[in-house]
Amino acid sequence: MLKQIIILISLIAFTPAIANAQIEQLENICSLYFPPEYIADGQEYFAPLKPDQKIEFRTTFFGDNTYRIVGCTNLRKGKLVFSVYDTDKNLLFTNESFDYTPFWDLKFTSTVTCVIQVDVKNTKFVPGYVMLLIGFKQ
After folding, report:
1. Residue 56: how many CA atoms within 13 Å on its side-chain side?
2. Are β-strands 65-73 and 103-108 bridged in parallel, bridged antiparallel, or unpaired?
3. Are the beta carbons of 29 and 21 closer than 8 angstroms?
4. What letter would DSSP give residue 96?
5. What whole-number distance in Å separates Cα of residue 75 and Cα of residue 52?
6. Do β-strands 91-94 and 128-137 pair in parallel, antiparallel, or remain unpaired?
7. Residue 41 in contact with residue 135, Cβ under 8 Å?
């Protein structure tokens, strides 16, 4: 019983450190596609992803701005798919149509609230983390 308690305490103590390391790793990967002319929106789009699960993030894009969306994952195999929908579920963009590119620039003529859906195409799925970076061009 004491051994189980020690294991449980260890898991609780180290889980935040593991999550912070995952966030830092993904920020480094994503930043490769996030040039300095883009300013991050200041939001954190980070989530664990399990088999057969899709993650959704909600954001607002303001009119007359160009935005860059960067998607990355720590998964070794699989293709990260991110799709942008308006609130009526109309598909505005998916990187699946562009060979799963890790980033895309979008220009909006009017302000729109969007849902960004993220999942991974992988027949041998291993749970992992996903992150989006979103920024607007200066």
Report:
1. 8
2. antiparallel
3. no
4. G
5. 14
6. unpaired
7. yes
Angle (CA) 67-90-127 rounded to 5° is 70
Q: Which amino acid is at 51?
A: P
Instruction: Report CA-CA distances (Å) from 38 to 31, 35, 128, 136.
Output: 11, 6, 27, 5
2-137 is a CATH 2.60.120.380 domain: yes
pLDDT tens digits along 55-83 = 999 999 999 999 999 998 877 667 889 99
Question: Could you tell me which of 117, 136, 132, 138 has the C-alpha nearest to residue 43?
Answer: 132
Instruction: Give the three-state DSSP class for 111.
Output: coil
pTM greater than 0.85? no
CA-based nearest residue to 34, from 73, 67, 75, 77: 67
Tokens matching residue 73: 């994952």
Q: Hey, what amino acid is at 46?
A: F
